[in-house]
Amino acid sequence: MRVLIVGAGAQGGPCAAILARDPNVSKIVIGDLHVDIANKVKQKIKSDKLEAVQLNAKDIEQMASIAKEVDVIIDLVVTSFAPYVMEAAVQAGVHYINSAFEQPFMDQLVEDEPILFDKECTEANRSAILGCGGSPGLTNILIAHYCKQLDEVKSIKIYSASVVSDDWYELVKGWKPVWSPFQALSDFNNPPVRFKAGQYEELPIFFEPEQYEFPFHGKFWNAHHMHEEVFSLPRKIGKGLSHVQFKFPVDEAAGTLIKTGLASSEEIEVKGVKVRPIDLLLQLIPSPGDTFFADDTEQLQYAQQGVNGDEWILEIDGVVDGKDKSYRLHSFFLSDQTVKSYELFGTANVFVALPVVIGAKMAVEGSVPSGVVFSEELNTDRFIELLNSTGIELKWSEL
Hints:
The chain is an alpha/beta fold. The protein has two domains: about 1-135 and about 340-395, 3-Layer(aba) Sandwich (Rossmann fold), CATH 3.40.50; about 140-335, 2-Layer Sandwich (Dihydrodipicolinate Reductase, domain 2), CATH 3.30.360. The chain is about 35% helix and about 25% strand. The strands form three sheets. Strands 7, 8, 9, 10, 11, 12, 15, 16 and 18 form a nine-stranded mixed beta sheet that branches. Helix 1 links the parallel strand 1 (about 1-5) and strand 2 (about 25-30). Helix 1 packs parallel to helix 2 (about 35-45), helix 1 packs across helix 15 and helix 15 (about 355-365) packs across helix 16. It is globular, with a radius of gyration of 20 Å. The two termini are about 40 Å apart.
């Protein structure tokens, strides 16, 4: 398998590290607008398979030219660039996969319209997989795996407890997201959507907070959050599904920044100088890409102490043989295997990178339908089989 990775940041580096140790991968091109970051990834991984290039994720012709020498594009840049990278994959005639998505795909799902590039991918017998990271991705896979057992699906509710900061021991904390700070702020700042009574409805930010009880982390404040699962699951699971919600930990630091106005893109004047508050904020926030270069020491330490990681609860209500059936699933979604991940792949950060690699392998082997598909539409048995064959397991329990 030959791969072009677009984006060498917080997820691009781990993705390249995983692919470099896969005997079935012969070529990896990792491209970033800041080629020094791509070169830094190459220097850390130390693999002859890996080539670092400067690449503009808005330059369709450049990406298509490089992609003609690979089998699949793995898109790990900010989600707003997806249409450009997808068009490059279409032009090059290769498969495409990303770990998350936003517009225009969300609106197309809400309006139940054809998905961008679905026709072109179908005609070319190529697959484009959207939202195949950790969440969305592993969440969708496990939900779909259980929904197959139901005759009717009534409700899906997703809850998360996350402890992923390297200053967990400090009383007063800075804001250090582990993915794109711009994307993280957008997710918190944009009004969340809930699918209720068969309709999509927009909600206020941090709506309906509740202290949800998790087996490991205990009580965690969760509130409605803008996320992909709410958009794709109602359209792709079917079976009468009428309610989907996604609740995420209430990030007090992010909330303070947003409600203070520091996430605003509207220009303000400060001592005669016009500035967008979000530009200033993004300059001050540490780059999450740095975690890939530090995880050989820091991530292992936190994993061994058992304080870092994501904990998830998936609640699925439905009907089997005319009787109500409910599942309450609990998983750490790979974050409980950080030490083993580092031993196997040279990176501890696999929550997003490993699922996207598995999806890419499925596309290349031909086990994914042609056209644009979402992660819940994948063959869940094959996905779990391939992931578990890496030495890392998708583990969960029924509560």
